[in-house]
Design brief:
With 325 residues, the chain is of the alpha+beta class. It is built from seven helices and ten strands. The protein has one domain: q2cbj1_9rhob like domain (Jelly Rolls). Helices cover 21% and strands 13% of the residues. β2 and β3 form a beta hairpin. The radius of gyration is 20 Å and the shape is globular. The structure holds 2-oxoglutaric acid and fe (ii) ion. The site of fe (ii) ion has 3 residues, from loops.
Amino acid sequence: MPDLAVPGEVVSKAEMDFFMKNGFFVKKGLLDPLKLAPALDQIWAHLLERVPVLEGSGWELSREDSATWMNPQWAPMPPHPTSGPYQGRQPIEHMGRIVKLHDVGDADYLLDLLPNDQSVRAVAEVLLGEDLRPSVRMRGVYAVFPTKDPADPSGKRRLSGASLGPHTDQVCQQLNAAAYLDDVSPRSGGFTVYPGSHKRMFQAHEYESNWSPLPSYHDVMNKVVEDIEPYELVAEKGSVIFWHGRTVHSAGIHTGSSIRWALFADFTHNREVMSDEEHRDLGQFEWFKDAKLFRDDWPVSVDDMWRNWSLRKGRKVEKYTDPKR
Ligand SMILES: O=C(O)CCC(=O)C(=O)O
Ligand SMILES: [Fe+2]
């Protein structure tokens, strides 16, 4: 995307307009490099120690030898727990090209790097509101490894990295952030969005933020994928992508040879939320996201999707009225 930043402004008018029109924008170099470099060292060490490798595969991952990054051979995933604190999702997911380190989502060094970093939080506050839920966890580190179909050494046909999986996320979606921990070049797994899809998907829900798809949801989604050209976010390390929670998105196509390292976080208004039990009853228990369902949410407004955002007319929303009133 064009660089619309204005020095000295947390979010420029042009950035805000771009975000409202397209449902996302990128802040380049937002992360503190002094926190970023040691964080990536720690993430690598954690991944090497904790993610199990397929026994007998002979594969050994090495940070120093990028040739070992291709076609990772992880051990089979155990089934996701059906009850308990990790219901629905193992703390680490390792499936082909994707590794999701949810287990580090509450680590201080990562909370300090992204959602609790002053510069990052300042952007979220200007967009969404000053009174945001304190960040105690993130989704975690999502790595996309390079893959190549061994049957086609030319690399033209890639097994798992060659297609997109457009979707929107569940639970409560207001403002989300993806931070690149290393440079992401074209066709290397960059987070991919469907510009403008947030407006259509917003209207395909009953409520503003809580997961509440209308019967039209799937048709609207199919139309988005048919009509809108996906936009792959290529950016250098330290860049942070902010996206509206209803924006259709996907992990990117990856026909390159590097690892796409990204950290994912959620921002929501600091309002009363449902209990874990209520989330379980609704089939919306996602322990690894800091995106709890609001106890009361506003019905979607047909004519003002930004009515509860601080970016609206440049005004900051500091206090929220009870939607029931
Ligand atoms: O890793 C990515 O780029 C996308 C991940 C994602 O969309 C998700 O897990 O919901
Ligand atoms: Fe997603």
